[in-house]
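Q: what sequence does this backbone want?
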């Protein structure tokens, strides 16, 4: 019989992979929804110098989540029917990136995220997770995945870049499958135009 703590850890890992909460490098204990920023109707919401438009490719900005210390923040976007969602994470990393190129760092972050997903499959949270493709697009290192859960298969996409010495990570997942790659690519390209 699994303990409550073990079940809680598995649930948190599941939420991380789906992009619903921040990756393991962020501080869960110190995370909180920023209600004032989440409720903002501003056309462009600016957080720590990063701009977040009210809408990107038909997906509306909603929740702003802050994490403790240098773990940064995230901004959620959702389609009107909630079948597609994207989280844009902006965060520092404790390791020294000054000796590495932006592409190598972003590629390493993609690999780290894919490793977390593999661990979730090993733990039985997902039936299967398959990396379909890795590529570089619009300044991002990217990966597409197919994650098989108990009752559905969800296409998921990961885009990572380094901007102003911070990682910018987009996690987009969709239950609407057929055009998910196009939506993910369009979202990443549209947000890349906001990065200065």
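A:
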């Amino acid at each position: 019989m699994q303990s409550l703590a073990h079940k809680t850890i598995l649930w948190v890992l599941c939420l991380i992979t789906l992009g619903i909460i921040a990756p393991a490098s962020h501080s869960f204990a110190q995370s909180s929804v920023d209600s004032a920023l989440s409720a903002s109707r501003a056309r462009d919401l600016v957080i720590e110098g990063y701009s977040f438009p009210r809408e990107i490719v038909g997906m509306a900005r909603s929740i702003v989540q802050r994490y403790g210390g240098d773990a940064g923040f995230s901004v959620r976007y959702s389609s009107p029917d909630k079948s597609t969602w994207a989280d844009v994470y902006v965060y520092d990393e404790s390791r020294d990136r000054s000796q590495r190129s932006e592409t190598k760092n972003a590629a390493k972050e993609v690999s780290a995220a894919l490793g977390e997903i593999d661990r979730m499959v090993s733990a039985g949270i997902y039936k299967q997770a398959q990396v379909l493709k890795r590529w570089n697009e619009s300044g991002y290192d990217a990966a597409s995945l197919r994650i098989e859960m108990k009752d559905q298969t969800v296409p998921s996409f990961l885009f990572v870049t380094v901007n102003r010495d911070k990682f910018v990570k987009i996690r987009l997942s969709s239950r609407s499958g057929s055009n998910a790659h196009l939506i993910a690519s369009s979202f990443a390209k549209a947000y890349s135009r906001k990065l200065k």
